[in-house]
């Protein structure tokens, strides 16, 4: 219809009103896709969703002592500066690509479009599976972390309580399934994203202020910014430092989350890049002060890392620092609450990614996962499948905690691996590629080169053993997991995907 401002609009297949000047919608139609999801997210809600999914300061709280013991406080504080710089490059690279190719498939779709025809399908297939598997690993990790914090709060008031691994797992299952219902309604989900952002900001302010204010003893500036530690067994501090950066890298994980909502927001070619870069900037602004606060309030590093009372180094820090169970409970609730919102956002991330990849027949039984439920108007079956995979992956902790931790690393490394081929092919093409409103020129080239270096760095360094000498209890099995993935994908490619995986012209 023609409005007073002479802007042309029309109704898409989902019933949403679409501005015909929306480049993203026009490009989406150009590639032959049918609009199935409603464009319910506003640009602000997309930013809230992207920030809630990554939630950098919460990423820092998940296992900050591991980085300290491997490289010292410099590994945490200055490691954040290093990873923020690298993540800025990743964000710029993603922004330029999503601006040119706004599609819910994200990295695999870009690989399909940018690679030479001979390599396009296999490049997209590898990229898509790296992204999907990484999303599943993130989901499994976060449901377990949430359960660990909840039981830690219980143990704070019941120190004689002995909990088995299966009890942690059952609580994690309950948390994951209970939170899954919020992804059944898009309108609720958009409001949930905003509420998650506000909850995260409130929690951040409370923890940042209350932790040092309640600390009975504090450290000095040297400890915060210049303390080195290496109990990993690596003779080289440089190697220990680089492997310890894994915690800082978690603060900027899954930066591609906003790309998978490209079909649920108007003007994705502009709004998605804004959400990605805002996530990186806000991430550093929030997690760097938090890291300094934790180091400033550190009472005893060894006792915090051991976490003998609660089983959680974070809650142990709160309690040993303040000496008050009431304050410690308040602080851990300030962390748990926004973290639960992050789990909901990860559910969205997983379902949209699996749905988009299945739409192009990238997965077995793709005809099921690619469906949009006619009543709920969400990719319900992809959502259920992802929840199920989360439960299976997290169940590995019942057999081997070490092997399970290796799967968790996959949640960080695999999404970055999915950036390698589209970024490489974009560099290979040079100026012979589609450009969107976000065209960074030489800055984009530099950002993509840094992105490739960072992706290969994480793939190599985070595959190293956690400690030396290597034993079954501290082995990093991520290389074995990658080898297993490669075998399964090779089998699936030749038996199914080689013929069925769609090549978009």
**How many domain units?**
1
CATH topology: Amino acid/polyamine transporter I
Order of helices and strands: EEHHHHHHHHHHHHHHHHHHHHH
The rounded distance between the terminal residues' Cα atoms is 31 Å
Counted by DSSP, the helix tally is 21
Report the CATH superfamily. Answer: Amino acid/polyamine transporter I
Radius of gyration: 22 Å
**Main sheet summary:** 2 strands, antiparallel
By secondary-structure content and strand pairing, the structural class works out as mainly alpha
Which segments are poorly predicted (pLDDT under 50) over 5 or more consecutive residues? 1-18
Q: Reading side by side through the largest sheet, how are the strands ordered?
A: 1-2
* Average predicted confidence as pLDDT: 88
Protein name: Choline transport protein
Keywords: Membrane, Transmembrane, Transmembrane helix, Transport
Transmembrane segments: 46-70, 76-101, 122-154, 166-185, 192-213, 233-255, 275-296, 326-349, 380-400, 406-428, 440-464, 476-495
Membrane topology: Multi-pass membrane protein
Describe the protein's architecture and organization.
Mean pLDDT is 88; it is low at 1-18. 69% of the residues lie in helices and 1% in strands. α5 packs across α20 (442-461) and α7 packs across α21 (478-500). The two termini are 31 Å apart. The chain has helices at 23-30, 43-54, 56-61, 64-71, 73-100, 107-114, 117-157, 165-180, 186-214, 221-226, 237-244, 246-250, 268-296, 301-306, 313-322, 325-359, 366-369, 380-394, 401-429, 442-461, 478-500; strands at residues 9-11, 17-19. Keywords: Membrane, Transmembrane, Transmembrane helix, Transport.
């Amino acid at each position: 219809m023609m409005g007073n401002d002479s802007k042309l609009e029309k109704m898409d297949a989902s019933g949403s009103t679409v501005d015909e000047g929306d480049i993203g919608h026009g490009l989406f139609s150009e590639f032959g896709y049918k609009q199935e999801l409603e464009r319910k997210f506003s640009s602000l809600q997309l930013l809230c969703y992207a920030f809630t999914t990554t939630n950098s300061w919460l990423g820092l709280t998940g296992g900050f002592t591991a980085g300290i013991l491997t490289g010292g406080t410099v590994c945490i504080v200055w490691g954040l500066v290093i990873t923020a710089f690298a993540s800025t490059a990743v964000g710029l690279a993603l922004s330029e690509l999503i601006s040119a190719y706004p599609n819910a498939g994200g990295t695999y779709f870009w690989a399909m479009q940018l690679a030479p025809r001979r390599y396009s399908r296999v490049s997209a297939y590898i990229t898509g599976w790296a992204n999907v598997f990484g999303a599943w690993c993130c989901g499994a990790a976060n449901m377990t972390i949430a359960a660990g914090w909840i039981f830690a709060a219980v143990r704070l008031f019941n120190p004689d309580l002995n909990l088995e691994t299966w009890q942690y797992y059952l609580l994690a299952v309950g948390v994951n399934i209970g939170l899954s219902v919020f992804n059944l309604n898009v309108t609720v989900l958009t409001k949930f994203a905003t509420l998650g952002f506000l909850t995260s900001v409130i929690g951040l302010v409370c923890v940042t202020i209350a932790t040092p204010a309640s600390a009975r003893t504090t450290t000095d500036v040297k400890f915060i910014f210049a303390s080195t530690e290496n109990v990993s067994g690596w003779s080289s501090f440089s190697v220990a430092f680089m492997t310890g950066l894994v915690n800082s890298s978690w603060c900027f994980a899954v930066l591609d989350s906003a790309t998978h909502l490209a079909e649920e927001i108007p003007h994705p070619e502009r709004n998605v890049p804004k959400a990605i870069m805002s996530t990186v900037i806000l991430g550093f602004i929030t997690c760097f002060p938090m890291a300094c606060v934790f180091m400033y309030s550190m009472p005893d590093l060894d006792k915090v890392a051991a976490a003998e009372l609660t089983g959680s180094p974070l809650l142990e820090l709160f309690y040993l620092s303040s000496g008050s169970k009431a304050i410690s409970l308040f602080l851990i609730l300030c962390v748990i609450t926004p973290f639960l919102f992050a789990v909901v956002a990860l559910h969205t991330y997983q379902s949209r990614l699996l749905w988009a990849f299945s739409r192009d027949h990238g997965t077995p039984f793709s005809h099921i996962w690619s469906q949009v439920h006619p009543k709920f108007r969400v990719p319900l079956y992809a959502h259920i499948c992802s929840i199920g995979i989360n439960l299976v992956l997290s169940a590995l902790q019942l057999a081997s905690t070490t092997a399970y931790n290796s799967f968790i690393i996959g949640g960080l490394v695999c999404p970055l691996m999915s950036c390698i081929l589209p970024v490489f092919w974009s560099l290979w093409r040079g100026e012979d590629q589609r450009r969107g409103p976000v065209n960074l020129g030489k800055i984009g080239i530099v950002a993509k080169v840094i992105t490739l270096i960072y992706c290969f760095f994480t793939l190599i360094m985070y595959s190293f053993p956690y400690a030396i000498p290597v034993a079954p209890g501290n082995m990093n099995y991520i290389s074995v997991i990658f080898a297993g993935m490669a075998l399964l994908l090779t089998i699936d490619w030749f038996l199914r995907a080689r013929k069925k995986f769609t090549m978009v012209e």
